[in-house]
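As a warm-up, study this chain.
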Amino acid sequence: MGLSNILYDKLKKLCVSLGKHNDALYAVLAIAVFKGVMRPTFTMMDKKSDRETKKYAAFREGLTEAIAFASYILTHKLVLPLAVPIAKKTGKSPKKVKNGLSLLSVCLTAGIIIPFICNLTLKPIMDGVKKLNDKRKNSKTDSFDRILDIKENIVSEKINVSGIYSPQLSAPSRSLLDAVRRNSLQNAAMKVGG
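Now compare it with the structure written out below.
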């Protein structure tokens, strides 16, 4: 028995198992998990956007999928108890009614309930997170400023080069030395004050 036969048997068993326990809820939960992980990941990998925008978008996408995940489970739990009474009234098998209700609850949740819940909750949550981040940034900046307490002094007056000690040199050498000193001191003054 080769490796290909072993892989084929494993795939066959997986397909049969998924077919026997097929439920629309499992599919949408798997999709919500993958979207909740992959979309924020790819958003954070975008090199064109700035960091704060990426963090905001990634958090919002993850939060939306978390809301979707919880909504799917909740509506599924609320709808499934109706399967037995509906099956008795219609004369259909409870399993078929359960599968139909599962698909119906997934569709209603995706089309109506999740957008409704997101419209109610996302803005207040995102505003709260933004306020919390702003408060944290301000407290970090304040404590950082208190620790360093850096003040810049701007030198606005020109430095007098004539009072600098220079040894007795011949006239051409002294003028060259004075020119170099004057140039370097002027550049230093421009860097400090400018």
